[in-house]
Amino acid sequence: MNADFKQVGDTLVVRITGELDMLVTDQLRQAIDQRLDTAGIRTLVLNLEKVTFIDSSGLGVIIGRYKKVRAQQGRMYIVGASPSVEKILHFSGINKLVPLYRSEKDVVSN
Question: What is the pTM of this model?
């Protein structure tokens, strides 16, 4: 797993590549939280376009970041999920909490 971070105004875009599983979730959680705690972020966008696999620990990271952003009166979006990852997001019910979009341009201005 690799994560690329880009801040656009008060929006943090996290582009994740590879598998989002128990081997990498602690590292990802810490990296996102560090930026959420220090950068004045109001909107979190998780780009899952290049995520090939997600397990329950990956879903846990998403739900945990959702709760953290919402506690700060912020918003969160998921973009670019492949059909297989999107299916998991629907089965888990995450799509009822976090809106799913096709691409970053649908939610990020720049």
Answer: 0.94
Helix, strand or coil for residue 80? coil
Q: What is the pLDDT of residues 8-50, one digit of tens each?
A: 889 999 999 999 999 999 999 999 999 998 878 999 999 999 9
Nearest to 102 by CA among 78, 74, 73, 70: 78
Range of the domain at 53: 2-106
E-strand spans in the chain? 2-8, 11-20, 43-54, 75-79, 100-101
User: CA–CA separation, 110 vs 3, rounded Å?
Assistant: 19
Number of compact structural domains in the chain:
1
Tokens of 60: 């846990």
The residues, ordered by sequence, that sit 6+ positions from 77 with a Cβ below 8 Å of its Cβ are 43, 44, 45, 46, 98, 99, 100, 101, 107
Domain of 25, CATH number, reads 3.30.750.24
Exposure of 11 in the CB half-sphere (CA atoms within 13 A): 16
